[in-house]
Specification:
This is Ammonium transporter. It contains 18 helices and four strands. The chain is mostly helical and 512 residues long. The strands form two sheets. Strands 1-2 form a two-stranded antiparallel ribbon. A two-stranded antiparallel sheet has the order 3-4. 58% of the residues are buried.
Length: 512
């Protein structure tokens, strides 16, 4: 425990230096929202454009307009979505991972998920939300919301609002902060599957604190931070307002619910960890079979249900965009399950329960960046391709890399996340049934089929993928090294053979 506290202290010390200095003054977090250029329907865009034009022509009336009051339906939906993402992490991801490890390590993986999630949620409240979703520079936010200060407005006697993707529409900022906390939490927990059954518990917690601070926060800011639609008050301020967004948002990268921020980010960190920590004792010589596919099936099912909050909740409103993300999450996942089973049957002669569960997760991962950014047909294609691609990721690619990625984090989340991010650029195209995205956030006019370039958007998506891989890879390598020097990454051979449940936690999942 002393080493764990020392590791966390190290993370806090690294946060303090002026390396995080901002380019300009911070703006209130009430002006923020998530996702790069999310899908908006033409019906939604027209009223927004009209409202913006009216506001520009009558500034005196706009100045006297009453403050935006959050819609109770939107607020309720976002609170339910937050609960769904908590469920998909603890217990969903925990049981999915737990069933895949050997019985002597069951509790260790449950602990790493539950305690890791809790650690990141606390860090999110302390500084994560502020550095992610307030105005700073293209790479990192500011300090306006440290400890969530300022979310309660003492003068108005109410909570501040957070912007959605519609002009004049908001949700309580506190609800928004809670929703985003669950994203940060599950992303860190995804990583632990890559080096399951051999890492020290204290080392895992220290690494998660470092990685969350220096990898998750900057990537999330770069992809998802922007000033919100109400900041676009006239055509003259569009360029200046765009410049306040995160780097990848400025580039026009599309990531509806976390293909880059969550899945690629976590998968790269997991892959680096699996390489640096090394293979499990007996890997390649002994059979490492899942101890309970029943629990894995239960966990995968909870992930699927919870993912509706993850993806559809990222619309930030109970509207058509949320419905599109909901249906895509439904259909693409089902398509991926079928694709994986067909692929397995062709390769091995039989379809397996493990394959069906893995296919579901593969589809969920791939559709995440695309959920509200592609049409239903595009979503089905994303799911089908992901099922086959991720099957190759956990078989062919894994053999090529020769890495003991215990629970196939990179094969599923890395391959699926990259595939989904790239195909988002393809199927967002209106000529392929996609919803497109606004030309600018003042007019609200959507990119037309003639103006949309699939090649150009895929290139932007590829650049965002590349930045995420490099950033997460470099930060992860440094963080693992620091933890190894201070705490040590791996348990002893004796402890590994005994099992982490007993050696690390002094208890067992099953009593004989």
């Amino acid at each position: 425990m002393k080493k764990l506290l020392a590791g966390l202290a190290l993370a806090a010390g690294l946060l303090a230096p002026a390396a995080w200095a901002q380019d300009g003054a911070s703006a209130p977090a009430s002006a923020v929202a998530t996702a790069a250029a999310p899908a908006a329907s033409a019906a939604d865009a027209a009223p927004a454009a009209a409202a913006a034009a009216a506001a520009a022509s009558a500034p005196a009336e706009a100045a006297s307009a009453p403050a935006v009051v959050p819609n109770k339906g939107d607020t309720a939906w976002m609170m339910v979505s937050t609960l769904l993402v908590i469920m998909m992490t603890v217990p969903g991801l925990a049981l999915f991972y737990g069933g895949l490890v050997r019985s002597k390590n069951m509790l260790s993986i449950l602990m790493q998920v539950m305690v890791g999630f809790s650690l990141i949620v606390v860090l999110w409240v302390l500084y994560g939300y502020s550095f992610t979703f307030t105005e700073g520079n293209a790479f990192i936010g500011g300090t306006d919301r440290l400890f969530l200060k300022g979310i309660w407005n003492n003068v108005a006697g109410t909570f501040e609002n957070a912007a959605t993707f519609s002009k004049g529409v908001a949700i309580p900022e506190l609800v928004y902060a809670a929703f985003q906390a669950t994203f940060a939490g599950i992303t860190g927990c995804l990583i632990v599957g890559a080096f399951a059954e051999r890492a020290k518990f204290a080392a895992v917690m220290a690494f998660l604190a470092l990685w969350f601070t220096f990898a998750y926060i900057p990537i999330a800011h770069m992809v998802w931070f922007w000033p919100g639609p109400d900041a676009y008050t006239s055509a003259a301020v569009v360029d200046a307002t765009n410049a306040k967004g995160g780097l990848l948002w400025q580039w026009g990268a599309l990531d509806f619910a976390g293909g880059t921020v969550v899945h690629i980010n976590a998968a790269v960190a997991g892959l680096v960890g699996a390489i640096l920590i090394g293979k499990r004792i007996g890997y390649g010589k002994e059979q490492f079979t899942p101890h309970s596919l029943t629990l894995t099936m239960v966990g995968a099912s909870m992930l699927w249900v919870g993912w509706f909050g993850f993806n559809a909740g990222s619309a930030l409103e109970a509207n058509g965009s949320a419905a599109l993300a909901f249906m895509n999450t439904f259909a693409a996942t089902a398509a991926a399950v079928l694709a994986w089973c067909v692929g397995e049957a062709l390769i091995k002669g039989k379809a397996s329960m493990l394959g069906a569960a893995s296919g579901a997760v593969a589809g969920l991962v791939a559709i995440t960046p695309a959920a509200g950014n592609v049409g239903i047909g595009g979503g089905l294609v994303v799911g089908l391709v992901a099922g086959f691609a991720c099957l190759w990721g956990v078989t062919g690619l894994k053999k090529m890399l020769k890495v003991d990625d215990s629970l196939d984090v990179f094969g599923v989340h890395g391959v699926g996340g990259i595939l989904g991010a790239l195909l988002t650029g393809v199927f967002n195209a209106p000529q392929l049934g996609g919803p497109s995205f606004p030309v600018d956030w003042f007019s609200g006019t959507l990119t037309s089929a003639d103006a949309y370039s699939i090649g150009a958007q895929v290139l932007v998506q590829a650049k965002a993928v590349g930045v995420t891989i490099l950033w997460s890879g470099i930060v992860s390598a440094i963080a693992y090294k620091l933890v190894d020097l201070t705490i040590g990454l791996r348990v002893s051979e004796e402890e590994e053979r005994e099992g982490l449940d007993i050696s690390s936690h002094g208890e067992t999942a099953y009593h004989k």
